[in-house]
Amino acid sequence: MDLKYHCPNCGTSLGYEGLCWKCKSEKERSEVLSWTQEQIAEKQEYLIQNIAGLEDFHDPEFTDFWNLLSYHDAITPQIQRAALAAKVYYPCETYYHAPEDVRDSLIAALLDANNANDAANLMSCLAMQGDDKVLETLLELEQNPRPWRKRLYVDPSVYAECGGWTFDKAGKRIQLNYDICYPLVKGKANEETPVKIGHLREDHCPHCGGNMADILVLDGRDDRLKFLGIDGILTATCCPNCVGFLEDGALNRFTLDGGSQPMPSKLFDGEEEMENYMSDEDYRLLSNHHFVLGEKPVPLFYGASCEDVNTVGGFANWVQDWEYVTCPQCGKDMKYLAQIQWDTLMDGTEGTLYIEVCPDCKIVSMKHQQT
Ligand SMILES: [Zn+2]
Ligand SMILES: [Zn+2]
Ligand SMILES: [Zn+2]
């Protein structure tokens, strides 16, 4: 492609005139973030009047919904009741922490469902509602499977995971995400930050020979990060070239004083060696950006609907299905900690890295997904 143009904002070479996709996305987001209370109320009212369009990805309803949820945390019980009345069960995030009357109607619909697809959608909606009555209902359905269960791949407890929680066989609730979210934002060179990404290490990858990287280093003692309950430093270490080709993702142990020990990893299909696709320029970009932790928390779904924002806590934007890694030491599901969009670091790189942690065993996992 002939890259004869440049993004007027960041200078990236482009094959067309105008802003690059990341600057365009950032501009659109800052417009949405500056909506007034009146504008928000107008969007909410429009969505209520046109709620059926939401399920069909119809615009502007679909875009308005995600803007209201992700950037203003402004999906009201009125919107949830309108969605319910129109039997709109997608996106399931519509029902995040919905009131009890909505929950009870969703439960009644689920218990009435004959078809596996309806049951799956309703379980996802209820997972987003997420209270104890939902847990009881999903537990009962797991213990006494209905006929539709045979046509689904996973149990109700796995559907619960899309709401950021699950339950064990005894019905005990297990939280799988954090209920605070911070974005990483562009700071100044050498600006102090308790979250650093893309630090290159001295050691080399056993598969491709490339540099290992501390892809995320986070200091849990910073006031903003106290919600993580990590009283020290968490380090996530992987080979940025190979992490997308590892069968179980990358895993490492960390110590609160900043230590990190990668655990053995296996490539897909039992391969021993991997070509290193990263150029010197890629390594330079990976380790030379200015992302710092944002000053203030943002809505929990801030990073759940865009491809250009890195976040700590809250909900991820899963490219495929949500995926909680089993801790290799204690066998429990890990907690979702952070997402890094590769393209924010290295131009033209696809996919997202999802970082999870077992705080008890001090083990971190890194999984890559892309379309
Ligand atoms: Zn740009
Ligand atoms: Zn490698
Ligand atoms: Zn563990």
What does this structure look like?
Helix 2 (37-49) packs across helix 4, helix 2 runs parallel beside helix 5 and helix 6 (100-112) runs antiparallel to helix 7 (116-129). The model has no long low-confidence stretch (mean pLDDT 96). This protein has 11 helices and 15 strands. Strand 3 (165-167) and strand 4 (173-175) form a beta hairpin. Strands 10-9-15-14-13-12-5-11 form an 8-stranded antiparallel sheet. Helices cover 29% and strands 20% of the residues. The chain has 3 domains: 1-33, no CATH class; 37-175, no CATH class; 181-369, no CATH class. The chain has helices spanning 21-33, 37-49, 52-55, 61-72, 77-85, 100-112, 116-129, 132-143, 156-160, 280-287, 342-345, and strands at residues 5-6, 13-14, 165-167, 173-175, 181-186, 195-204, 211-219, 233-238, 250-254, 260-262, 291-293, 311-313, 335-341, 352-358, 363-369. With 371 residues, the protein is an alpha+beta fold. It is globular, with a radius of gyration of 22 Å. One zinc ion binds next to helix 1.
How much of the residues is beta strand, in percent? 15-25%
Q: Over all CA atoms, what is the radius of gyration?
A: 22 Å
The number of helices is 11
Instruction: Write out the strand line-up for the largest beta sheet, numbering strands in chain order.
Output: 10-9-15-14-13-12-5-11
List the ligand species: zinc ion
Q: Oligomer, anyone?
A: single chain
Percent range for helical residues? 25-40%
Structural shape: globular
Element-level helix/strand string = EEHHHHHHHHHEEEEEEEEHEEEHEE
Average pLDDT reading: 96
Low-pLDDT stretches are: none
Largest pleated sheet: 8 strands, antiparallel
Distance between termini?
22 Å
Number of separate strands: 15
Structural class: alpha+beta
Question: How many domains?
Answer: 3
